[in-house]
Amino acid sequence: MPRSTQAALLLIVTIVVILGAIAQVDAMPTASAESQIRELLEAQTTAWNQGDVEGFMRGYWKSEETEFVGASGITRGWQAVLDRYRRNYPDRKAMGRLTFSNLEIHVVCPEVAFAIGQFQLERDNDRPAGVFTLNFRKFPEGWRIVADHTTAFPPPSSANRASDRAAAKAKL
């Protein structure tokens, strides 16, 4: 076999080996988008429950395009959302203990996902709860919330609270 043919075959074999190695690296398991988003939400819950609003906000895209939609209207911009949280939850007591439930994460494509679920705050005098939809985008630093639509359930009426107390006593 001529030397030029041997060199060409060696080059082809080398390219095939390199491409195979690249394919194996790409195929290596990495955390799924869903698990990464769940980890982000768990980190947010942990930060909130430690009274760390700034840590909670690390889950949001730090951009003027970040949006929060709630009963009081639309808040635009990461800093404005942070200011809103600080205003509405000025201290650890107001923040209470946050939990999420019925969480569903839907990955639309490799860079976009949304989550729906319920939240509840456990505080000394009340238990606000509601539902949310979070829109996520994947950035080089990871998944971030770009839009948050949170709706609180109306507080129970005094009649409901009285019947709840009576039912709790009856169980004792």
Question: Can you describe this structure?
Answer:
The model is unreliable at 23-29 (pLDDT under 50). The longest helix is centred in the N-terminal third of the chain and has 25 residues, at 3-27. The protein folds into two domains: 1-30; 33-159, Nuclear Transport Factor 2, Chain: A (Roll). By secondary structure, it is of the alpha+beta class. It has helices at 3-27, 33-49, 53-57, 78-88, 92-95, 158-171; strands spanning 67-70, 73-76, 97-109, 112-122, 129-139, 142-152.
CATH class of the largest domain: Alpha Beta
Shape: elongated
Determine the fraction of residues in helical runs and give it as a percent range: 40-55%
The whole-angstrom Rg is 25 Å
Mean model confidence by pLDDT:
85
| Number of helices, where a helix is a run of at least 4 consecutive DSSP H or I residues | 6
Alpha carbon gap, first and last residue: 93 Å
Which ranges are low-confidence, i.e. pLDDT below 50, for 5 or more consecutive residues?
23-29
Write down how many β-strands occur, each being a DSSP E stretch of 2 or more residues. 6
Strand order of the largest sheet: 2-1-6-5-4-3
Topology:
Elements: H1 3-27, H2 33-49, H3 53-57, E1 67-70, E2 73-76, H4 78-88, H5 92-95, E3 97-109, E4 112-122, E5 129-139, E6 142-152, H6 158-171
Parallel strand pairs: 1-6
Antiparallel strand pairs: 1-2, 3-4, 4-5, 5-6
